[in-house]
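Need C-alpha coordinates for this chain, all 177 residues.
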Amino acid sequence: MWDGLRLAVGIIHILLQDRPELTPVAIMAGKLLARRLFAGSTIQMDYDNIATTVFTPLEYSTVGLSEEDAIRQYGEENLEVYHAFYKPLEFRVTEREEDVGYIKAVCLREGEQSVIGLHYLGPNAGEVMQGFAVAIRCGLTMRMLSSTVGIHPTCAEEVVKLHITKRSGEDPTVTGC
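Here are the C-alpha coordinates for all 177 residues:
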Protein backbone atom coordinates (compact mmCIF):
# COMPACT_ATOMS: atom_id res chain seq x y z
CA MET A 1 0.00 0.00 0.00
CA TRP A 2 2.37 2.72 -1.16
CA ASP A 3 0.89 6.17 -1.61
CA GLY A 4 3.86 8.26 -0.59
CA LEU A 5 3.55 7.35 3.09
CA ARG A 6 5.98 4.86 4.58
CA LEU A 7 6.65 3.07 7.88
CA ALA A 8 10.25 2.48 8.89
CA VAL A 9 11.63 0.83 12.05
CA GLY A 10 8.62 1.64 14.19
CA ILE A 11 8.80 5.35 13.42
CA ILE A 12 6.28 6.89 11.09
CA HIS A 13 7.86 8.86 8.28
CA ILE A 14 5.53 10.83 6.11
CA LEU A 15 6.98 11.54 2.71
CA LEU A 16 4.96 13.87 0.58
CA GLN A 17 7.14 14.11 -2.48
CA ASP A 18 5.45 15.91 -5.36
CA ARG A 19 2.42 16.53 -3.17
CA PRO A 20 0.75 19.82 -2.23
CA GLU A 21 2.57 21.28 0.78
CA LEU A 22 -0.60 22.20 2.64
CA THR A 23 -1.40 21.53 6.30
CA PRO A 24 -4.90 20.11 5.58
CA VAL A 25 -3.37 17.67 3.07
CA ALA A 26 -0.83 16.43 5.64
CA ILE A 27 -3.56 16.09 8.29
CA MET A 28 -5.81 14.06 5.97
CA ALA A 29 -2.89 11.87 4.81
CA GLY A 30 -1.97 11.21 8.45
CA LYS A 31 -5.55 10.32 9.40
CA LEU A 32 -5.89 7.93 6.48
CA LEU A 33 -2.55 6.31 7.32
CA ALA A 34 -3.63 5.83 10.95
CA ARG A 35 -6.91 4.26 9.80
CA ARG A 36 -5.02 1.85 7.52
CA LEU A 37 -2.57 0.92 10.27
CA PHE A 38 -4.98 0.58 13.17
CA ALA A 39 -8.54 0.30 11.88
CA GLY A 40 -8.27 -1.98 8.86
CA SER A 41 -9.12 0.73 6.34
CA THR A 42 -7.88 0.49 2.76
CA ILE A 43 -8.65 4.08 1.75
CA GLN A 44 -5.70 5.85 0.14
CA MET A 45 -5.12 9.58 -0.01
CA ASP A 46 -6.41 11.13 -3.23
CA TYR A 47 -4.10 13.99 -4.14
CA ASP A 48 -6.12 15.11 -7.16
CA ASN A 49 -8.41 18.12 -7.06
CA ILE A 50 -7.30 19.56 -3.74
CA ALA A 51 -8.56 23.11 -3.33
CA THR A 52 -6.30 25.83 -2.02
CA THR A 53 -6.57 29.56 -1.40
CA VAL A 54 -4.08 32.41 -1.29
CA PHE A 55 -5.30 34.70 1.49
CA THR A 56 -4.25 38.08 0.14
CA PRO A 57 -6.41 41.23 0.24
CA LEU A 58 -8.09 39.96 -2.93
CA GLU A 59 -8.24 36.20 -2.37
CA TYR A 60 -7.44 33.63 -5.05
CA SER A 61 -8.69 30.06 -4.84
CA THR A 62 -8.28 27.12 -7.16
CA VAL A 63 -9.09 23.44 -7.49
CA GLY A 64 -8.01 21.05 -10.23
CA LEU A 65 -5.81 21.84 -13.19
CA SER A 66 -4.58 25.22 -14.30
CA GLU A 67 -5.31 26.10 -17.91
CA GLU A 68 -1.63 25.61 -18.74
CA ASP A 69 -1.45 22.16 -17.11
CA ALA A 70 -4.69 21.13 -18.81
CA ILE A 71 -3.27 22.16 -22.20
CA ARG A 72 -0.15 20.07 -21.53
CA GLN A 73 -2.22 17.08 -20.41
CA TYR A 74 -5.13 17.16 -22.89
CA GLY A 75 -4.11 19.54 -25.70
CA GLU A 76 -5.67 22.95 -26.29
CA GLU A 77 -8.03 21.64 -28.97
CA ASN A 78 -9.64 19.31 -26.39
CA LEU A 79 -10.44 22.06 -23.88
CA GLU A 80 -13.09 24.73 -23.48
CA VAL A 81 -12.29 27.54 -21.06
CA TYR A 82 -15.16 29.61 -19.67
CA HIS A 83 -14.33 32.88 -17.96
CA ALA A 84 -15.78 36.12 -16.60
CA PHE A 85 -14.69 39.40 -15.08
CA TYR A 86 -17.30 40.46 -12.54
CA LYS A 87 -17.83 43.24 -10.02
CA PRO A 88 -18.56 41.81 -6.56
CA LEU A 89 -21.30 43.51 -4.58
CA GLU A 90 -18.67 44.43 -1.97
CA PHE A 91 -16.76 46.39 -4.64
CA ARG A 92 -19.72 48.33 -6.02
CA VAL A 93 -19.48 50.80 -3.13
CA THR A 94 -15.97 51.90 -4.12
CA GLU A 95 -17.02 52.58 -7.72
CA ARG A 96 -13.45 52.00 -8.91
CA GLU A 97 -13.29 50.34 -12.30
CA GLU A 98 -10.12 48.41 -11.44
CA ASP A 99 -11.87 46.55 -8.60
CA VAL A 100 -13.00 43.38 -10.37
CA GLY A 101 -12.96 39.66 -9.75
CA TYR A 102 -12.23 36.88 -12.23
CA ILE A 103 -13.57 33.35 -12.61
CA LYS A 104 -12.34 30.63 -14.95
CA ALA A 105 -13.59 27.07 -15.50
CA VAL A 106 -11.30 24.74 -17.47
CA CYS A 107 -13.36 21.98 -19.09
CA LEU A 108 -12.91 19.02 -21.38
CA ARG A 109 -14.52 19.93 -24.67
CA GLU A 110 -16.32 16.68 -25.47
CA GLY A 111 -19.52 15.31 -23.93
CA GLU A 112 -21.02 17.27 -21.07
CA GLN A 113 -17.74 19.13 -20.56
CA SER A 114 -16.25 17.83 -17.31
CA VAL A 115 -14.86 20.67 -15.20
CA ILE A 116 -11.20 19.80 -14.59
CA GLY A 117 -10.12 23.14 -13.10
CA LEU A 118 -11.84 26.06 -11.42
CA HIS A 119 -10.20 29.37 -10.52
CA TYR A 120 -11.73 32.24 -8.57
CA LEU A 121 -10.32 35.66 -7.73
CA GLY A 122 -12.51 37.70 -5.42
CA PRO A 123 -13.86 38.15 -1.91
CA ASN A 124 -14.15 35.05 0.28
CA ALA A 125 -12.49 32.84 -2.35
CA GLY A 126 -11.86 29.98 0.08
CA GLU A 127 -15.49 29.94 1.20
CA VAL A 128 -16.74 30.04 -2.38
CA MET A 129 -14.38 27.31 -3.60
CA GLN A 130 -15.01 24.74 -0.84
CA GLY A 131 -18.38 23.61 -2.19
CA PHE A 132 -17.22 23.66 -5.80
CA ALA A 133 -14.21 21.51 -4.82
CA VAL A 134 -16.58 18.79 -3.59
CA ALA A 135 -18.62 19.08 -6.79
CA ILE A 136 -15.51 18.73 -8.97
CA ARG A 137 -14.42 15.63 -7.02
CA CYS A 138 -17.91 14.23 -7.75
CA GLY A 139 -17.63 14.82 -11.51
CA LEU A 140 -19.03 18.33 -12.03
CA THR A 141 -19.80 19.19 -15.64
CA MET A 142 -20.43 22.54 -17.29
CA ARG A 143 -23.97 21.37 -18.00
CA MET A 144 -24.56 20.82 -14.27
CA LEU A 145 -22.97 24.14 -13.42
CA SER A 146 -25.01 26.14 -15.93
CA SER A 147 -28.28 24.48 -14.89
CA THR A 148 -27.75 25.43 -11.24
CA VAL A 149 -29.79 28.37 -9.92
CA GLY A 150 -27.42 30.78 -8.21
CA ILE A 151 -28.01 32.45 -4.86
CA HIS A 152 -28.51 36.17 -5.55
CA PRO A 153 -26.66 38.40 -4.84
CA THR A 154 -23.51 36.41 -4.08
CA CYS A 155 -20.08 36.08 -5.65
CA ALA A 156 -20.56 32.31 -5.96
CA GLU A 157 -23.54 33.01 -8.22
CA GLU A 158 -21.10 34.27 -10.85
CA VAL A 159 -19.57 30.78 -11.09
CA VAL A 160 -22.86 29.17 -12.11
CA LYS A 161 -23.49 31.99 -14.59
CA LEU A 162 -20.30 31.32 -16.60
CA HIS A 163 -21.16 31.10 -20.30
CA ILE A 164 -18.51 32.94 -22.34
CA THR A 165 -15.59 30.93 -23.65
CA LYS A 166 -12.13 32.23 -24.43
CA ARG A 167 -12.44 30.56 -27.85
CA SER A 168 -15.48 32.75 -28.67
CA GLY A 169 -13.51 35.98 -28.37
CA GLU A 170 -16.51 37.66 -26.71
CA ASP A 171 -16.00 40.21 -23.94
CA PRO A 172 -16.22 38.23 -20.66
CA THR A 173 -17.15 41.27 -18.56
CA VAL A 174 -20.37 40.70 -16.61
CA THR A 175 -22.80 43.59 -16.90
CA GLY A 176 -25.88 44.14 -14.77
CA CYS A 177 -27.03 41.85 -12.00
